Amino acid sequence: MNVVINLLITLGSLGIFLYGMKLMSESLQKLAGNKMRNILARMTSKPFNGILTGAFVTTVIQSSSATTVMVVSFVNAGLLSLAGAIAIIMGANIGTTATAWIISLLGLKFSMAQLAIPLVAFSIPFIFSKHSKRKSIGEFIIGFSVLFLGIEFMKNSIPDINNHPQILEFIAQYSNMGYRSILLFVLIGTILTLIVQSSSATMAITLLMCSQGWIGFEVGAAMVLGENIGTTITANLAATVANNTAKRAALSHLVFNVIGVIWMLIVFYPFLKLVAFITESTEGLSPFVSAAAMPVALSIFHSLFNLTNTAVMVWFIPQIIKIVNFIIRVNNDESENFRLHYIPSTLVNTSELDIQTAKKEIEVFSQRVLRMFGFLKDLDNTAKTEDYEKLMARIAKYEDITDNMEIEIAKFLTKIAEGELSNKGSQRVSSMLRIIDNMESIGDAIYQISILKNNQRENKVTLDETLTANLDNIHQMVSRALEVMNDNLHSEYDNADIDAAIDIENKINQYRDKLRNQHLEDIKSGTYNYQTGTVYSSMYALYEKTADFIINVSEAASNKQQSDR
């Protein structure tokens, strides 16, 4: 019974540690999310700058998984080249070593629990502040405190090896098999990281096991190597529904780490002796002899391995690209089927950063709507019945795609809204929900116009040159409004050109009024029959209605209130 209780206490302590990491990461992302995105997005073809950027960002947000998922999304969006992404991922491996140093130098050497509670008290004024940045600072302080409370609880929950010799006997039979033991614990480190989904948490467990004498220095180092492999799974999961280049970026993380682990296993024991020498020079104790020296030694091993691996592998980025290109080949069969381009199948806890992913998907949505609108002019210029029917079917298919895109993007935005967001982030999510709702309505309106055109063709309703020219004019005006909308959605929303959007909308309204007044006069004078007038008036009214949805999108992007129309 005691064993079960101890296990539950250990798992609960791990949960507290993970929650502290989550709070720290999310609060830092809210404080610097846009800056982190801008820094990463500007890295292109300079490997060493990319490495420094990846290391800096990961150190700041305390999550290599968040960094690599960001990189995958930027590659998917075309903001980063594959080579630039690999460089940033290499840097992320270096940045993630900061966690090990925090744990080994602070969490294990000092009782941070005594400081954690006063820090929580210090954070209270920040937490209840109405200022979003101050609130995020308070959340960071609490996350920092909770993280160290988790470490303290884990330290206390792991039984003393001297009082439980049976544990040592159990581990000893698997840790004294030479290289087979090393390979076994590399596998254990990999699997444990896959389960926990956090290399930082697995590193904390490894450091605690070493500090309590459960495992030796060699076994602990082997687990660290396994953790480097296990941490790559998050980005690969996020890339499962991304484009081929993004999948290659995620796979390059795995390839880079696996190659690093392979060469490290070849020089494993000489490398451990080097680490032991450095540790003994600084700490005065050998990790091969003293359990107290192992946490610092493992931190040195972790940092030195990732630094060396990056210093070597940075020269082989072209070869890594060849490997991932060979594994993930280009599929040239691009059909017009519904597929999300940027939104991943799994949502990582990076809500503030996922807003950029949603923005890129909305840009794709906008481009599809533009393409769909262009089909209307193709209908006017298609005489052959078979080609006309194919074009109608294509418009219907695009209408289904717009429905599906609205549903899936809305689901993603709803998940983001459930996370921790800054005030600006929450506002942006609300704007995006308005945008996709109106863009789906644009798709519906375009489909309705195509139905009108089809009915006109089937009923053989002929419009004279004047009426045709009027509809061509309003079509061109709505097309221009769509281009302005598309430009606004591709820009930073704060810089959306709302004045241009309102200007073209006013012109469309004025032209609609002109057409309507003239139409009423023509009906009274008998210029054309009722059937022709019905088709004509319904057509220009639908074009104007489409324009209303278009201006709604630009207003939502710029966060302006919808005007009364």
Structure overview:
The chain has 565 residues and is mostly helical. It folds into two domains: 2-327, no CATH class; 351-557, Methane Monooxygenase Hydroxylase, Chain G, domain 1, CATH 1.20.58. It is 79% helix and 0% strand. It has helices at 2-41, 47-61, 64-76, 82-95, 97-107, 113-127, 132-157, 165-175, 179-196, 199-211, 217-230, 233-238, 244-266, 268-283, 294-313, 317-327, 351-380, 385-418, 423-458, 465-490, 498-525, 530-557. The longest helix is centred in the first third of the chain and has 40 residues, at 2-41. It is elongated.
Number of strands: 0
**Overall domain count:** 2
- Count helical runs: 22
Q: Uncertain runs with pLDDT below 50, 5 residues or more?
A: 332-336
How much strand? under 5%
Largest beta sheet, briefly?
Answer: none
Q: Would you tell me the overall average pLDDT?
A: 80
Distance between the termini: 71 Å
How would you classify the helix and strand content by structural class?
A: mainly alpha
Order of helices and strands, N to C?
HHHHHHHHHHHHHHHHHHHHHH
Helical coverage, percent range: over 70%
